[in-house]
Write a structure and sequence with these properties.
Length: about 140
């Protein structure tokens, strides 16, 4: 009888776990503590989506335009954030040795989609890519890298 009760509990647990797989509450969550150069270098999806976001931009600092092929930036650790009720990963980076003059923030979905990017540059001002919502913009405008 005890063995049967144990099997029944295990079966119920499996049913609960597998029934929640499609539940949005169990969707992919954003990570944190990662570095932009590491993620772009190891995830083809992140790299391609970032390239696509940058490709359509006209006025970008050269270090941003070439950040995938010739990384000359430093980055801080990413943070898991929520934007418009959805998980996202916020990365920050700046031109090495010139963080006060030129920096960026970029939001990625947990699946690696580049959602939006903001460059703050002393010469070019603010450059926004990806049509960020107000919630995304507030994350992209946070200080620091």
């Amino acid at each position: 009888m005890a063995v049967m009760a144990g099997l029944l509990r295990t079966l119920l647990m499996l049913v609960l776990v597998f029934s929640c797989v499609g539940d949005p509450a169990f969707a992919a969550e954003a990570q944190s503590g990662r570095f932009l150069q590491q993620v772009v270098g190891s995830s083809e999806k992140h790299e391609k989506n970032l390239q696509a976001l940058l490709r359509g931009a006209r006025s970008l600092p050269s270090w941003v335009r070439n950040m995938i092929s010739n990384p000359r930036y430093v980055s801080g650790a990413s943070r898991a954030v929520t934007v418009d009720g959805k998980p996202a990963e916020l990365f920050g980076a700046c031109l090495a040795g010139q963080c006060g003059q030129s920096r960026l923030r970029v939001l990625f979905s947990p699946e690696g989609d580049a959602l939006s990017l903001r460059v703050e540059d002393a010469q070019l001002g603010e450059v926004l890519l990806g049509a960020p919502s107000q919630a995304a913009l507030s994350q992209l405008r946070l200080p620091g890298i």
